[in-house]
Amino acid sequence: MKKKIVLIATFILLITQNVSSNTVHVIDGDTIKIGNKKIRFSGIDAPELNQYCFKNGKKIPCGVLAKKALVKKIGNKVPKCVIEGKDRYKRILAECFINEKSLSKFLVRNGYAFAYRKYSKKFIQDEEVARKNKLGLWSMKFDYPWEFRKL
């Protein structure tokens, strides 16, 4: 627990230390870069940028749709991120927040990302809300991102 608190404090210090490191770049629907730190949202999986969904016979760029939703949600703010570890690609895994609200929860609950059950059970209820109400990608035909990457 102590180690996690130190990591969180260090990371928040890094992103608030100077104005030049406060630049946020949205890479895709579940990955951002703050300064030079690449952060993958833990517990969720969003469509790849080159992934398409289908609705009413139309091809929809669902990966781009997810990215745009995240860009809009972040706006001109800098997320505060709680580091949870690193993935096999050495990316920082974290849950990030804007005004104390989880970006991951927002993405899953609105149908722009999926609960990544293989690694976490945290966002399953949010996914059920989106699925039940046919929000975002749930209103379309799609491949789960982890299935798409296997193609």
Give a concise summary.
The protein has 151 residues and is of the alpha+beta class.
Kindly describe this structure.
This protein is of the alpha+beta class. The chain has 5 helices and 10 strands; from the N terminus they run αββββββαβββαβαα. The protein has helices spanning 2-16, 62-74, 103-109, 124-132, 145-148; strands at residues 24-28, 31-34, 37-41, 44-45, 53-55, 58-60, 80-86, 92-98, 101-102, 114-115. The strands form 3 sheets. Strands 1, 2, 3, 7, 8 and 9 form a 6-stranded mixed β-sheet that branches. A hairpin with a 2-residue loop joins strand 5 and strand 6 (58-60). The model is unreliable at 5-10 and 12-20 (pLDDT under 50).
Describe the secondary structure blueprint for this structure.
Blueprint: H1 2-16, E1 24-28, E2 31-34, E3 37-41, E4 44-45, E5 53-55, E6 58-60, H2 62-74, E7 80-86, E8 92-98, E9 101-102, H3 103-109, E10 114-115, H4 124-132, H5 145-148
Parallel strand pairs: 3-8
Antiparallel strand pairs: 1-2, 2-3, 4-10, 5-6, 7-8, 8-9
- Highest-level CATH class: Mainly Beta
Order of helices and strands: HEEEEEEHEEEHEHH
What share of the residues lie within helices? 25-40%
- Range of strand content: 25-35%
Unreliable stretches:
5-10, 12-20
> Please, what is the average pLDDT?
89
Shape: globular
Based on CA atoms alone, the radius of gyration comes out at 16 Å
Strands, count: 10
CATH topology (level 3) name: OB fold (Dihydrolipoamide Acetyltransferase, E2P)
Q: Tell me about the largest β-sheet.
A: 6 strands, mixed
User: Which architecture per CATH?
Assistant: Beta Barrel
